[in-house]
Cobalt-precorrin-6A reductase
Amino acid sequence: MKRPLIHIFGGTSDARQICVMMDIAGIDYSLSVATPTGAQQAVSIRGEIVIGRMDAGGMIEYLQNRGTEMVIDASHPYAELVSQNIVSACQKLAVPLIRYIRPSDIDAVEHPLIHKVATVEQACEVAAGLGSRILLTTGSKQLTDYVAHLKGKTVLARVLPTAEVLAICESCGLSVDQIFALKGPFTADFNRAFYQFCQAEVVITKESGEQGGFKEKVEPCLSLGLPCIVICRSNHQFSGEGITQAHGLEEMAQLLINA
């Protein structure tokens, strides 16, 4: 019996693990990533890699032209607009959608040094009152917003080592002493040494779950006595006809078995 033609949206490590599951099971698929860097990280998968960001209209055109029969949304947990576009495209075409939900560790972490917030603006407001050297482990996507809201503070950015990302850092006015171009995953020991090396007084991170090394980022803060500000995920739930939720890789594996 012919396998359903599946398209996956996501340049995350979770998305790549889902691809590996499908490779092992012999399921045909294609994978969308936003940038060439995402393609480099997925080079070992067997499926076709499609590079480039798509809006809802672009997704509809691509999925329709390919005759896609199922979509998996394994995009970044904070890429809410991307997920909304995927939902819109799938509902427009009546294509079944599996939304991969990365498990969260946020409820298991409670400590006076941990400050949970909902937005970048709130994170900056809290950080500004806690220290002068503020380390961002949140990537480069909203770097401009952080810099704008942390005027008068020393912003330290740990970002991916790509020309595009470094250009963003430079456009924000960050100096070479403020840019740390490194690719994870990082252990807790590495992060502890790194926080000490860059003399961070406050750390801002995201609720990235196990795949994003959340605990490895937070635990060193607690051992060093550093305030850690966590930007929590949105509680928005995408639901509707044809949408199935997969909470974690085990649930995703079961859904793929039954696909």
Summary: Residues 99 and 245 are 5 Å apart (CA to CA).
